[in-house]
Amino acid sequence: MKTLLKNAREQKGIKTRELAQLLGIDQALVSKFENGSRKPTREQISKLATALDINFEELMIAWLKEKILYEIGTDDLALKAMLLAEEEIKYNISYVRKSLSKNLQVLLNEIDELKSKLDNFRQFDSYRIKQALELEYTFESNRIEGNTLTLRETDLVINEGLTISGKSMREHLEAINHKEAIDYIKQLMDKNTSLIEREVLAIHNLILRGIHPEDAGRYRKVQVMIKGSTHMPPQPFLVAKEMEDYFIWYEENKSKMHPIVLAAEMHERLVTIHPFIDGNGRTSRLIMNLILLQHGYVIANIKGDYDSRMKYYQALETAQTSNNKEDFLVFIAQIEKESLERYLSIIQPA
């Protein structure tokens, strides 16, 4: 792979410094990729393929081959282990492909093309753009749950520290808390922290801080019903076990699924368990977006207007009551596609 990278860079007439800028990494790291002393990450492989016009599949195969050889070396039992692994990989691939509809697969392909384009323009990204989009996310996510602050009022509360006349203290706290929760998931993303119970409880604690302090970051102890839904969440004594299974499922599937599907599944599964008295929707959407950000995608911002909210709730209801997640997965994929398109329209040079 190291020869492939170097030859492609030289053929394009790109210097290591220029390639490093395109990838958003140190120049020394590019040199290490080319001399074989350091292996790129999966995300960096995607960026390298785009920047150097290398066939992604060809580069990915070369990367995986080297990764496998590094792990198994020349052990006498390596070939036998490879044969067993081959059968399991074939089974997993077959299972994943069968579980995705043609419509969803087309959407995922379009999303990954958009992400690849976005990766080429990361250098035009800025703190101000992210700040504005995160403000919109806070506004929309709270609006879904009934918060009546406008986008401008949300900005004044978060960034100017102002109090809006006629709006409740809860609505002010929801805006402030959600902004802090976004900052927290960005910290988790930067640290590449795995999703564990402690982090989910910490996110929920931020969401309900000062609103329901006795319930913030704690699983519910009473039975709840979801307004407007026929889905009945599990009894409170089952919540801890359901959440344990939730994290086990994540660990077993996080490397098998497309990140969009994984993020949507983790959202749906959490909100279906409904482990908290309040704040389940906002926490579930934050978990979903943490996973998306960790994989290099952008925040999927579900709008809070009536039509968008109804489509969202209906897709969730179908997933929860008919064991058919297709509508919800497609809904989330479409939201992510639209979010990527908008992000690109903002940062892409004219």
TrEMBL record:
Domain Fido intervals: 195-334
Coiled coil segments of this chain: 97-124
Signal peptide start and end residues: none
Protein keywords: Coiled coil
Keyword set includes 4Fe-4S: no
Domain HTH cro/C1-type, residue spans: 5-59
Gene3D superfamilies recorded: Fido-like domain, lambda repressor-like DNA-binding domains
Entry keyword Coiled coil: yes
Listed Pfam families: Fic, HTH_3
SUPFAM superfamilies on file: Fic-like, lambda repressor-like DNA-binding domains
Protein name: Helix-turn-helix domain-containing protein
